[in-house]
C-alpha cells in the first residue's frame, strides 16, 4: 500500500517485511476505499475507530517492502509543493502522480524532436499518452505504475541521444540501473534497449565484413563510428556490445543489490504467505502474448472496463502494435528499426521469463497483469509518431487523435 509508505516517509524510509499499515492509512482506506479491494465505509470514516486489521486488504500488511525507497522519495518530494499550497495529503500525493505523467509527456516531446519530427507530433504523442488508460489509472491513484511511463520515456530519449553521441554509454547504463531500482518491471524497456543494441552490433559487423571482402583487404574497415546524417551515428560493433552488456548488467546489479538489502533489513513481523496457481507449460507460454493486445489496458482487465475504457485500450493497443510492425517492414533509420526489434523481443519473451523467475524465487505462479509492460508504451508511441508521412496534414491528424483520446479519458472513471 503505497500511501502508507509515503505517510511514513522520511522518518521511516524503508518498509520492512511483515510491516503493517498504520492507523492513518487505515482511516484513509475507511474514508476513500482502495482500488479493486475495498469500498469506502463512511460511517467508520466519521469516527475515530478503525476496523480490525484482518478486514483491510492483504490483512493490513504493507507489501511495499519489495520496492526500493526511490519511488517513495521522489513522489513525497513532488507532493510537498501541493501540501504547502493547502491540499490534503492524499490529494497532494495524487497530484504527484500527475507530475510523474507530465514528466513522461515532456520527455516524449523531446524524444520526437531529437528524431527530427515537428512540434505538432511531439504534442500529439504526449496527448495520446495522457489520454491512455494506463496513464489514467496510474496517475489518478497513488501507484508505482506512474513511474513506469516516466522511466520508459526517459530511457527512450536517452537511447536516441546515445545514437547521436549526446549521451555516453556509461550514463545510459546508469539510467537503466536507476530504472530497475525504481521498479523492477522497467526491465521491459531496459531489455528492449539491450536487444536493440545487440541486433545493431550484428548488423554493423555484417556490413563491415562484407565491405572488407569486397575491397579484398584484411584490415579493419571503418573501425570508428560512422556518421549517418540527421545527427545520428553508427557506433562500432564493440561499442554496441559493451553498452548492451552494461544494460544487462545494470538489471542484474539493481535487482541483486536490492534483494541483498532486503535480506539484511530485519523483518517487522511474520511475513504473509502468498499463494498462486500451479505453473504449467501452457500458462508460461501464454505470458508471451499477454502484453501484445493488452499493452494499453493498464491496471484493469478488459472485461472489467467500461465502454470508453475498452475503446481507448483496444484502439491504443492496436495502434502501437501496428506501428511497431511497420517499423520492422519499412526502410527506417537504424535506431528505430533496432528499437522495434527490441520492442518485439521484450514483449514476447520477458513475460514468460518474469513468470518463471517468480516461480523460482517466490515459489508460486500468477498470471502477469498487462500493466507490467507499461514501460514500453512510450516507445510504442514514438513508433506511431515516426511512421506517418512528414507533413503538417498527418501531424494535424495525429494531434486530433491525441486530443480525442485525452477528452475521452475523462470518462474512464465513470
TrEMBL record:
Keyword Transmembrane in annotation: yes
Keywords in alphabetical order: Membrane, Transmembrane, Transmembrane helix
Listed transmembrane segments: 92-110, 122-140, 146-163, 170-199, 240-261, 311-330, 336-360, 372-388, 394-413
Taxonomy, superkingdom: Bacteria
Protein name per its UniProtKB record: Uncharacterized protein
Species this chain originates from: Mycetocola lacteus
Lineage: Bacteria, Bacillati, Actinomycetota, Actinomycetes, Micrococcales
Amino acid at each position: 500500500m503505497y500511501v502508507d509508505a509515503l505517510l511514513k516517509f522520511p522518518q521511516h524510509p524503508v518498509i520492512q517485511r511483515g510491516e503493517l499499515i498504520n492507523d492513518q492509512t487505515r482511516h484513509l482506506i475507511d474514508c476513500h476505499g482502495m482500488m479493486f479491494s475495498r469500498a469506502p465505509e463512511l460511517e467508520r470514516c466519521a469516527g475515530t475507530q478503525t476496523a480490525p486489521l484482518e478486514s483491510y486488504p492483504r490483512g493490513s500488511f504493507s507489501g511495499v517492502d519489495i520496492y526500493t525507497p526511490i519511488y517513495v522519495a521522489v513522489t513525497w518530494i513532488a507532493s510537498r509543493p501541493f501540501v504547502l499550497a493547502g491540499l490534503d495529503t492524499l490529494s497532494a500525493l495524487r497530484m504527484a502522480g500527475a507530475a510523474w505523467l507530465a514528466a513522461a509527456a515532456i520527455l516524449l516531446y523531446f524524444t520526437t524532436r531529437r528524431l527530427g519530427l515537428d512540434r505538432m507530433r511531439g504534442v500529439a504523442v504526449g496527448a495520446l499518452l495522457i489520454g491512455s488508460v494506463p496513464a489514467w489509472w496510474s496517475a489518478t491513484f497513488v501507484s508505482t505504475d506512474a513511474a513506469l511511463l516516466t522511466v520508459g520515456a526517459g530511457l527512450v530519449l536517452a537511447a536516441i541521444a546515445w545514437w547521436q553521441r549526446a549521451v555516453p554509454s556509461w550514463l545510459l547504463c546508469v539510467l537503466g540501473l536507476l530504472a530497475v531500482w525504481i521498479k523492477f518491471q522497467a526491465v521491459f524497456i531496459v531489455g528492449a534497449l539491450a536487444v536493440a543494441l545487440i541486433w545493431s552490433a550484428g548488423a554493423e559487423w555484417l556490413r563491415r565484413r562484407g565491405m572488407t571482402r569486397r575491397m579484398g583487404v584484411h584490415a579493419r574497415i571503418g573501425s570508428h563510428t560512422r556518421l549517418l546524417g540527421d545527427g545520428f551515428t553508427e557506433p562500432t560493433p564493440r561499442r554496441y556490445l559493451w553498452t548492451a552488456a552494461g544494460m544487462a548488467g545494470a538489471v542484474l546489479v539493481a535487482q541483486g543489490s536490492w534483494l541483498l538489502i532486503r535480506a539484511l533489513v530485519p523483518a517487522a513481523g511474520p511475513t504473509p504467505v502468498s499463494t498462486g496457481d500451479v505453473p504449467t507449460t501452457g500458462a508460461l507460454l501464454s505470458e508471451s502474448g499477454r502484453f501484445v493486445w493488452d499493452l494499453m489496458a493498464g491496471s484493469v482487465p478488459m472485461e472489467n472496463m467500461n465502454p470508453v475504457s475498452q475503446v481507448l485500450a483496444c484502439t491504443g493497443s492496436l495502434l502501437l502494435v501496428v506501428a511497431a510492425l511497420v517499423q520492422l517492414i519499412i526502410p527506417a533509420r537504424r535506431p528505430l528499426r533496432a528499437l522495434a526489434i527490441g520492442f518485439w523481443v521484450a514483449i514476447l519473451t520477458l513475460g514468460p521469463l518474469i513468470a518463471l523467475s517468480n516461480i523460482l524465487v517466490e515459489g508460486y505462479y500468477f498470471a502477469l497483469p498487462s500493466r507490467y509492460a507499461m514501460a514500453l508504451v512510450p516507445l510504442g508511441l514514438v513508433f506511431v509518431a515516426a511512421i506517418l508521412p512528414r507533413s503538417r496534414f498527418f501531424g494535424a491528424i495525429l494531434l486530433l487523435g491525441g486530443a480525442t483520446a485525452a477528452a475521452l479519458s475523462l470518462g474512464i472513471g465513470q
